[in-house]
Amino acid sequence: MNSTNRKLIKINMKKLSRILPLIMFPLLMIGQAKLYRQDMTEGNLLFLEKNYPMALHQYLDAYAIDSTNANIKYKIGMCFLNMTTGKNLSVYFLNEASKDVSKRYDEFNPMEKHAPLIAIYYLAQAYHLNDNFNEAITSFTNYKDQAGPNESDRREVGRSIDKSLTGIELTENPIQLKFINLGDSINTEYPEYSAVVSGNDSLLIFTSRRPGSTGGEKTMDDQYYEDIYYSRRNVNGAWSKAKPISNKVNTNDNERSLCLSYDGKQLILYKESNGGDLYVSNFEDNQWTSPVSMGSDINSKYDENGAALSTDGKIFFFSSNRPGGYGGSDIYFCKKLPNGDWGLARNIGAVINTPYDETSPAIFPDGKDLFFSSEGHAGMGGSDIFRSTKIGEDDYNWSVPANVGYPISSSGDDIHFGPVMDANHAYFSCIRDGGAGDLDIYSLVTEKSLNEALPVLSEVVNSNDPLINLTCGKERGCKQFPSIFFDFEKATLRENAKPELDTIAAYLTANEELKVEIYGHTDSKGEDSYNYKLSLKRAQAASDYFSSKGINVNRIKGSGKGEKFPLEPNENPDHSDNPEGRQMNRRVEFKVLESENEISFY
Fold first, then answer.
1. 3-state secondary structure 125-140
2. Reported pTM
3. Mean pLDDT over the full length of the chain
4. Hey, which of 189, 447, 484, 516 has its CA 20 to 30 A from 523?
């Protein structure tokens, strides 16, 4: 190669060294943009599946490419907010995201650069969950000011602010108790919860999502299926290494422990079949039997998801979201009949139940104090623990529920609370510093009895009192009254319908500007013309009852709808009769009207 050619190559290499970065930089940017889009798309799909840990992994890869993007900060913050650990990290990312929000946010565009307006609301939630209640109130108020006049949003924000105010009050006056972690014989880095114990506190049964679960499969949110485990207290008072309860009880699906009889020989558990049902397993011949459904008087095609048994085994409490309640999940009870069967389930009433969820009942060994989890009563978290005391022998006569206080009730969701016989300790699941990593089971120990350590209960109020829970705060109409139901081919009011009618009548008496419309319905048995007349008679029966309570007839309007608007199918998919569905359709519904708004009660 001659010298001229060598000079040309040298010159061209110099030019290429200058030009190459100009060529490669856009190519790198294009490649990075492609990777970012891919990470965001995969993260969004995982987020929709509620697989927050895997979604977070994708979002963090995208964040490494573009850390200035408000949308990716929002996504990362939301992952931390929805995971059991890392909620403290959600504050930073959601705070950064909230500095660049847009009402034109495109949720499905992986290249979206702004965060949605609701990021401010979730920032407030993050502050609240980290017990920064004053900052939470500021952010909730900021969101309310920017979100506009949407009433449902404003009502929910108002409830959130109330919870933060309650959080300030409860944390300033904590109850005195010790949290004692049950240790690595019980707890793992995976969730352990829903602990129940025998009356002598020697047998502990609980639920876990640890590896080694029956079937070994995971849910879409990357958790192992629920299995039930047990442990026995040894002579030194320590708990033995937990073991799976039985391959007759644990299956490839979810099983959750809910209640253990006083003698430790009957376990009530939850299975997801038929919408969520309660089952019972008995300890016989030194082993647990295959679970058997508790039957149609307790189970429905809706979700029955909590259980408590009195010490003598004669009264059973459970929670269900079946129609005909006060809204969400309600607490019901039934009594054991002389033949050993359970009687029909009855709603415990409006003192305990609210338009929101009441779940996880637990009865104190004295049979008088009922503990439960509620979203509707005045609390600081999503769900708080409350206590109410039964007065006398009236099954509906309960004291106004009292929040058991901080730190049992916290800014998160507090659900499973189990007091035991000696009256100075209880079992509870929560996430605390120094724990195994997720939900752990703790023993909560007080120096004096739980009754003395917990807040004083309010005055006694009967659940059938018509003036209970007529409104929620200042916003009229947020109380939801149930429908009333009728026997087949009857238009006669049932006795258990009259307390509900009394409640609505009292509401109308207290608000004289309101009017009520009454809609009668039937099932599909019979001719259309017959059903129309029957539905009209049912509406008339309710109307006559209101009139007997002093409501002016000019404020009452009744109409019959016949069989046209069923709540549930009258027949099963195979065209066989559906008695439960037909019962739900034999009903009367109510709509209360005022000058500008309509308020429905179903």
1. HHHHHCCCHHHHHHHH
2. 0.71
3. 84
4. 516
